[in-house]
Amino acid sequence: MERTFTNEARRAQIVRAAIDTIAELGYTKASFARITERAGLSSPRMISYHFKDKDDLIHQILHEVFNQAAEQINSRMGQEETAAGRLRAYLEANMEFLRGHPQEMAALTEIGPHLRDEGGEPYSSQSAQEGSVRGLEGILAEGRSSGEFRDLDTHSVAVMIRAAVDTAARRLRGEPGLDFEAYTRELVAVFTRATRPE
Predict the structure, then answer these.
(1) Res 190 pLDDT > 90
(2) What 3-state DSSP class applies to 147?
(3) CB atoms within 10 A of CB 16
(4) pLDDT at residue 116, as a whole number
């Protein structure tokens, strides 16, 4: 299918409707018929024209949300000149993205257990986090080399940081609610102290 401005706009409209439908109804109830209704389209065939199946649509959602998050987080980190500054920016930007995109986070939480790789095997949270963990390891290794951080185990600390971010995402819509400003403040304080030279 040729990627024209009109086609891209329609694909974006469908992705937005799919995110909102999955966030509201859950993954299993988010049929093409429901997404069609939310998008204001005339027929589910409109979705099938742009996406070969539900998996194709889901992967487009993941692609778009992860790219948006990476752009926001990398932009904030790029403004910092030190490893400590980049770590703080990473934590703060992650929390800002979560707080600013509750529907996307709810949809991803619903999608997660249903994701399959090309071989049909379920994705694990570990494999999904691996890129972020490696990026964090790089920041931590840089800070350790420069003396900004203590002699820490970069992989272990990176896994802990990623787990703290993911926990906030899971609690975004839960009860009782999470005070994101307080969580962000404490998150930064905890890992600032945890990485500080002894």
Answers:
(1) yes
(2) coil
(3) 17
(4) 76
Percent of the chain exceeding pLDDT 70 equals 93
pTM of the model: 0.85
Place of tokens 């399959």: 116
Count of alpha carbons within 13 angstroms of residue 61, beta-carbon side? 29
Residue 153 has what DSSP assignment?
A: -
Distance in angstroms (rounded) separating the CA atoms of residues 38 and 162 = 33
pLDDT tens digits, 84-95 = 999 999 999 999
Q: Measure Cα distances from 120 to 36, 115, 116, 131 in Å.
A: 27, 9, 5, 21
d(CA 114, CA 109): 10
Rg (CA), the chain: 19
